[in-house]
């Protein structure tokens, strides 16, 4: 049957960093008081833990009584906390005389939902209680995004739940030792949105390993047949975070320090060959830190850039009157001030003169200036629309008049066609002229194609076409 679970949690928000335990109240240290009446109430939601109804997990703490819920001695035996002064307890399995399997489960809350595809380290500590009849393996943790309507079976004999699912981590060994705590841990890649964890045994009884203990001279399979203490529950994002960009002045040193949980004892290695979570850098470049933990492999990169410790605007230059010159201030500085008190990174220059810039960054203050001349970089081209080749030495020839002051003529081609498209004149020099002797009067077509090389090194294509009338 399906059992509804009523949850009452204290909600909390936080920024999730690598190494931060997302489990709220992971050691069960937060509680109102440690008396018998609060043993079950603690799991009703007052301190970020609850239960699958009708389970009744226990809280054991230093303020309790030795015959009930105290530490180190309580009604299940004697055990000091793994850390702090408190721990929790569960009936991990009880089998009735009729063969009904009964179990208890605790539900904890995370401070933030898990992020999709991120890797997490899951961990808890468990210890078999002295009064348990047997030990078992398959104690585990299950992460879920919702727990209000999980499907569980009930055990009518004592009213405890039985929840079968695939845990995210679980123990594989059945420990008979009641003196020590043992660790259950593993890695998990999040589906995204998980914000609850459940502790208990999630496998069918025929999938668990049971080791019976000798109690009071004989074997017992009575009440609370297998009971375990739980402490120090952790859900930690496995990750490594470096600063995105670091700026250095020439000669400076900087220590890259990764944000990483060193308690995981992950292997950390840099692309320089150095080991550890710190690296001293003096040169620009990409520095990559690799984290290897179990089967999890994660990288992060820092870009180290070298800041300029001088300013160079370049050599004196020139611009063209038909195309304004643009001065670009070098990058890598925090403040910019031109001689006209402007702070733009670019200047549009249309007049000749001296232009100065002062800049600052953490390396210091630097200045430079340059002289700009403005040149006429255009070509003046005139092509007549009529000529009279009658040998009177006036307007006897035809061709373009090209006047280029600063540009050089790189290529030149001037062609004249008759009315049928035939070429009657073709020249590759701007000084060449068509002086027809026998050409008939009429209208002729011309095409001029030339390419000039401007002083700034840019090539410019010029094309002109039209008609000219030949009159005799």
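Q: What amino acid sequence fits the structure above?
A:
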């Amino acid at each position: 049957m399906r059992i509804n679970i009523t949850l009452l949690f204290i909600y909390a928000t936080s920024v999730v960093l690598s190494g931060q335990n997302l489990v709220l109240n992971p050691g069960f240290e937060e509680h109102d008081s440690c008396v018998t009446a609060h043993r079950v109430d603690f799991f009703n939601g007052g301190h970020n833990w609850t239960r699958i109804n009708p389970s009744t997990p226990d809280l054991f703490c230093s303020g309790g009584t030795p015959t009930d819920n105290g530490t180190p001695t309580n009604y299940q035996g004697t055990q000091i906390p793994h850390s702090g002064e408190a721990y929790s307890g569960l009936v991990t399995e009880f089998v009735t005389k009729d063969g009904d399997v009964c179990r208890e489960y605790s539900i904890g809350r995370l401070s933030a939902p898990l992020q999709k595809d991120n890797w997490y380290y899951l961990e808890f500590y468990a210890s078999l209680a002295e009064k348990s009849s047997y030990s078992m393996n398959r104690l585990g943790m299950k992460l879920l995004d919702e727990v209000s309507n999980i499907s569980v079976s009930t055990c009518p004999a004592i009213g405890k739940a039985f929840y079968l699912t695939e845990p995210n981590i679980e123990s594989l060994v059945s420990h008979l030792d009641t003196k020590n705590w043992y660790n259950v841990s593993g890695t998990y890649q999040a589906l995204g949105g998980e914000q609850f964890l459940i502790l208990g045994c999630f496998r069918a009884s025929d999938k668990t390993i049971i080791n019976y203990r000798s109690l009071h001279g004989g074997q017992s399979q009575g009440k609370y047949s297998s009971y375990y203490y739980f402490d120090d529950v952790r859900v930690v994002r496995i990750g490594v975070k470096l600063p995105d960009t670091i700026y250095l002045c020439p000669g400076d040193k900087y220590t890259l320090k990764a944000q990483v949980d060193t308690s995981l004892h992950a292997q950390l290695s840099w692309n320089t060959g150095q080991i550890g979570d710190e690296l001293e850098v003096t040169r620009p470049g990409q520095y990559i830190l690799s984290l290897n933990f179990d089967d999890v492999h994660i990288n992060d990169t820092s870009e180290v850039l070298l800041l300029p410790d001088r300013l160079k605007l370049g050599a004196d230059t020139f611009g063209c009157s038909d195309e304004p010159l643009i001065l670009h201030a070098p990058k890598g500085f925090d403040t910019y001030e031109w001689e006209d008190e402007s702070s733009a990174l670019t200047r549009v220059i249309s007049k000749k003169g001296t232009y100065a810039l002062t800049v600052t960054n953490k390396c210091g203050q630097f200045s430079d200036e340059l002289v700009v001349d403005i040149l006429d970089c255009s070509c003046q081209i005139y092509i007549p629309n009529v000529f009279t080749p009658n040998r009177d030495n006036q307007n006897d020839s035809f061709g373009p008049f090209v006047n280029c002051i600063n540009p050089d003529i790189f290529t030149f081609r001037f062609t004249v066609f008759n009315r049928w498209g035939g070429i009657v004149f073709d020249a590759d020099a701007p000084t060449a002229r068509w002086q027809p002797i026998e050409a008939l009067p009429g209208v002729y077509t011309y095409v001029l194609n030339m390419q000039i090389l401007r002083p700034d090194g840019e090539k410019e294509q010029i094309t002109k076409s039209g008609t000219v009338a030949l009159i005799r």
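Q: And what stands out in the fold?
A: The longest strand covers residues 226-238.
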